[in-house]
Every structure is written in C-alpha cells, then in structure tokens.
Amino acid sequence: MKLTKAIRIGHFTENLGKQLLMLVEMLKKMMTIVELLILQGDLLPEGNTIPASMYEAKKTLCALGLSYEKMHACPNDCILYRKEYEDLTHCRNCGISRWKEGKDSILKEGVPAKVV
C-alpha cells in the first residue's frame, strides 16, 4: 500500500515539474513580445507614440474619420468568417463552433466566440 502511494506522489511531482517548465517557457515568450512592443515604441521619432490601449487606437482612428470593421474569427485563428465563409457556423479547418458556449454548455447563437 505504501509503495503505491509513493509511486502516485512521484508521478504527481513529475507532472507538476513538467507543467512548471511549460509555464516558465510561456512566460519567457510573453516577456519577449512585451519587450518587442516597448522597443518598437522606442524606435519611433521623438514625440511619436504607440497607443497604450486598443481604446486609444480606436479613438484616434475615429477622430481621423477612419473606420474599422469587426470580424468574427475562429477561436483557433484558422479562418475569418467573411466572404465565402460568412454563413458558416463551424470552422472548416478545425470544426470548432463559431458561437460562444454558455455556462450550461449550450451554444449562444449570435454571440461570436472571437471577434477581431
């Protein structure tokens, strides 16, 4: 009985170690992206800045008379639901539903899972 428990604990700690390594790698990648964005802002000429948020970017676009279009997208970034894919309810590549799933696992048709 004690040997079985020890094996289970060893298996748990081994899996935990792998998960922690994956988390550390993911955080490294995220920090690299943030560093690139900061560097991009530093490369701009004096007095020019990158908007700090999507809200600021949208506000600037509207003030200039420019518009943007919201598009439904596959949650896995396979396709955009426009043109020939506009009427699809599931992704042609991965099969995931276009619509958001509620807490009760029922699809909320009309509420997109991802908008870009």
Task: Describe this entry's structure for a reader.
- The chain has 116 residues and is mainly alpha-helical.
- The protein has two domains: 1-64; 69-116, no CATH class.
- Helices cover 45% and strands 8% of the residues.
- The chain is built from two helices and two strands.
- The protein has helices spanning 2-43, 54-63; strands spanning 99-101, 107-112.
- It has a two-stranded antiparallel sheet.
- Strand 1 (99-101) and strand 2 (107-112) form a beta hairpin.
- It is flat, with a radius of gyration of 22 Å.
- It starts with a helix and ends with a strand.
Please give the order of strands in the largest beta sheet.
1-2
Strand content: 5-15%
The largest sheet is: 2 strands, antiparallel
Task: Give the helices and strands as they follow along the chain.
Answer: HHEE
